[in-house]
Amino acid sequence: QVQLAESGGGLVQAGASLRLSCAASGRTFYRMGWFRQAPGKERAFVASINWSDGNTYYADSVKGRFTISRDNAKNTVVLQMNSLKPEDTAVYYCAARRLATIVRYDDWGQGTQVTVSS
Q1: Distance in angstroms (rounded) separating the CA atoms of residues 82 and 67
Q2: Contact 71/83 with Cβ under 8 angstroms?
Q3: How far, CA to CA in Å, does 103 sit from each of 31, 82, 97, 111?
Q4: Which residues contact 12 (CB under 8 A, 6 or more apart)?
Q5: Are 78 and 71 in contact (CB under 8 A)?
Q6: What is residue 15's DSSP assignment?
Q7: 56, exposed or middle or buried, with CB in 10 Å at 0-12, 13-18, 19+?
Q8: pLDDT for 46-89, tens place per residue?
Q9: Which of 88, 85, 46 is nearest to 67 (CA)?
């Protein structure tokens, strides 16, 4: 099992930036991702990164504004969020996908609240 601990959420105004971090421990994994869940909505994919080659993937709604990166030495994934909008308000979750052959995120963090005021 992978243990995940998120940090960095908060309350900001529209147009501001926030940086979310996720520290991982416990075992190796294939890909790390960020998801978010707004009130009354389903959890949605935000961004992900392959741990070995660093390839990144983004939801259309955040392309050009959010950047995902990794620090292999620290086993940490960072989500840099710029030009935040009120519709980015959600609980953000870090997740780990253990295997390339199984399309499933196996381990989840506890979530961190991001609130963007207009």
Answers
A1: 8
A2: no
A3: 10, 29, 8, 21
A4: 18, 84, 114, 115, 116, 117
A5: yes
A6: T
A7: middle
A8: 999 999 999 999 999 999 999 999 988 888 999 999 999 999 99
A9: 46
- Which two three-digit tokens encode residue 115? 């609130």
**Residue ranges of the alpha helices (H) in 2-75?**
none
Neighbours of 103 (CB within 10 A): 8
Q: Which amino acid is at 98?
A: R
Q: Which two tokens stand for residue 71?
A: 């620090």
Q: Give the integer Cα–Cα distance in Å for 25 and 76.
A: 9
User: How far does the chain reach from its first CA to its final CA, in angstroms?
Assistant: 39
How remote is the C-alpha of 116 from its chain's centroid? 16
Q: Which token pair is 97?
A: 């996908």
